[in-house]
């Protein structure tokens, strides 16, 4: 009888609907907190890339890849004489790293830095394909891609899986340094 009860309980558990992770809707503005969370499946005005598409574009060399992952700052209270080493950032080869440009609100200096970095990466061509990314489930890349559209860039692609998806696919990465401010 106990065995039958366990079998019935097991079958009942199988009938409970599994709630699939759903993507949140797009926002009117920019995300300003909790940046590491599920992201929308879409971005109005931009092309959303799966890893296979991002790889094909990268291999063709037809786009500038731009990483917006923040650069961790040196801790302010390190004891004198402590050696600080930045954590290496491994990026899609050939990418331009414009850190700290995916926050929901940017100061004037950071916005100028982003605009200048984009101008260099695009060669001043607002129709050049720009692929924006950081890590999986990172609103910063969504924010940055949306911001590029507001700047008048017309060929924006958002790669929401970022370096996490790239590395899961065993694609090459290289150590990267941020573009100097």
Q: What is the compact description of this entry?
A:
The chain is of the alpha/beta class and 181 residues long. Helices cover 32% and strands 13% of the residues. A 5-stranded parallel sheet has the order 1-6-5-2-4, with helices on both faces. A two-stranded antiparallel ribbon has the order 3-7.
Task: Write up this protein.
- The protein is of the alpha/beta class.
- The protein has a domain at about 40-70 and about 85-175: Oxidized Rhodanese, domain 1 (3-Layer(aba) Sandwich), CATH 3.40.250.10.
- About 30% of the residues lie in helices and about 15% in strands.
- It has 5 helices and 7 strands, in the order H-E-H-E-E-E-H-E-H-E-H-E.
- It has helices at about 1-15, 50-60, 110-120, 140-150, 160-170, and strands spanning about 45-50, 65, 90, 95, 130-135, 155-160, 175.
- It has a 5-stranded parallel beta sheet, with helices on both faces. Strands 3-7 form a two-stranded antiparallel sheet.
- Residues about 5-20 have low confidence and may be disordered.
């Amino acid at each position: 009888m106990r065995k039958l009860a366990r079998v019935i309980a097991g079958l009942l558990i199988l009938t409970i609907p599994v709630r699939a992770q759903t993507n949140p809707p797009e926002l009117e503005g920019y995300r300003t907190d909790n940046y590491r969370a599920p992201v929308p499946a879409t971005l109005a005005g931009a092309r959303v890339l799966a890893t296979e598409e991002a790889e094909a574009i990268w291999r063709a060399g037809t786009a500038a890849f731009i990483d917006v992952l923040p650069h961790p700052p040196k801790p302010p209270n390190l004891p004198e004489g402590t050696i600080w080493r930045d954590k290496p950032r491994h990026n899609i080869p050939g990418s331009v790293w414009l850190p700290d440009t995916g926050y929901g609100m940017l100061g004037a200096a950071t916005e100028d830095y982003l605009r200048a970095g984009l101008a260099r990466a695009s060669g001043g061509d607002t129709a050049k394909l720009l692929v924006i990314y950081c890590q999986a489930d990172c609103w910063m890349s969504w924010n940055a891609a949306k911001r590029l559209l507001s700047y008048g860039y017309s060929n924006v692609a958002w790669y929401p899986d970022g370096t996490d998806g790239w590395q899961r696919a065993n694609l090459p990465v290289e150590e990267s340094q941020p573009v100097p401010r």
